[in-house]
Amino acid sequence: MKALNINIAKCQYKAMIGVGGIGSGMFFLLNGDHTLGREESRSGRLENRKDYCKLHIISHYVQTLLGKDFLVIPIGKVGKDDTAVKLLSEMKEAGLSRDYIELDENRPTLFSFCFIYPDKSGGNMTTDDSASSSVNASFVNDAEHEFKKYMSKGIALAVPEVPLEARERLLQLGTKYKFFRAASFTSGEMSIIVNSEMLKMVDLLGINLDEASSATKLSLDKKDPIKIVEEAIKVLCSINSRIKLTITHGKSGSWAWDCNDISYFPALNINVVSTAGAGDAFLSGIIAGITAGLSLRDAQQLGALTGSASVTSPHTINKEIDRQLLFNLMKQSGLSFSDKVIKLLEN
């Protein structure tokens, strides 16, 4: 796999330490495009696709894009089952550290059930009694010496599918050791987050339009998303004036707020196989770009490429993604990319 054209030794950040869900799942393709009703029975079929959870997805892409000289340390738990054996093997193959992934004797590996509409959109439901649910602040504390080792040279990543307690502790450690702190939250969590202190410990918040809507008092209006984007910036910056934001909206593209300006970048016109995991792939590209020294505006372009490459695969981790694939997509897109992004990708 071809990593980005960077020398990690010259980059500000040398490692990423993250906490979040590690698990797998299945896909169910629904018949009919109308939104699934509360009491509705709907036919469909199981798809032959591999599903992965958020921390695994982001960690995989960051490792692939930045290469073996950049250390990625996922913190999480899996069950003592066949699913965990397969996941740990894949993580090893990708070059991820497994030093802080523990086997839970009493709970199964996190499982997600993804439902997909014929138009390729969809959602997912995730078990809340899995090994990931037992990840707590004390468990995250076990990795404190890794934070100390990379003082001011690391990225702290806090993503869903583990309790907020664990994510808050990771952000606290990231703050203590002067890491760049990135996070994402589900729509259901946003109302909690905007009334907590956690956002004050976040440098970069990566969310989608539905999650942005949940942070505001506005209903989700897909016809005029910029209203939600602007209101979300207003609300979130009133909590943390230095927070940077990325907000994705599928085929409608993405917005980024760098504390001064809003930048918009369109989605690539591409054959979509599945949108599942695209938001996580987008955030991975942002993190890789920031590590490489890009501005948020330029990193947004790399995120758009990574997210677009993700949707060409039926699986939530597209193992074909590397510098060469992103370069090819960039050339085929017809869109304008910054010289710095081109330099990272060119042969």
Q: How would you sum up this structure, described in words?
A:
The protein is α/β, with parallel strands linked by helices. The chain has a domain at 12-32 and 45-183 and 268-345: UDP-N-acetylmuramoyl-L-alanine:D-glutamate ligase. The chain is built from twelve helices and 13 strands. The strands form two sheets. Strands 5-4-1-8-9-10-11-12-13 form a nine-stranded mixed β-sheet, with helices on both faces. A four-stranded mixed β-sheet has the order 3-2-6-7. Helix 10 crosses helix 11. The mean pLDDT is 94.
Instruction: Output the CATH homologous superfamily of the domain at 12-32 and 45-183 and 268-345.
Output: Ribokinase
Could you tell me the strand content as a percent range? 15-25%
Strand ordering within the main sheet: 5-4-1-8-9-10-11-12-13
Series of secondary-structure elements, N-terminal to C-terminal: EEEHEHEEEHHEHEHEHHEEEHHHH
Helix content: 25-40%
CATH architecture of the domain at 12-32 and 45-183 and 268-345: 3-Layer(aba) Sandwich
Biggest sheet, in brief?
9 strands, mixed
CATH class of the domain at 12-32 and 45-183 and 268-345: Alpha Beta
* Secondary-structure content class: alpha/beta
Round the Cα radius of gyration to an integer and report it. 19 Å
Poorly predicted regions: none
Q: If you average the pLDDT, what whole number results?
A: 94
Distance between the termini: 13 Å
Number of helices: 12
The CATH topology of the domain at 12-32 and 45-183 and 268-345 is: UDP-N-acetylmuramoyl-L-alanine:D-glutamate ligase
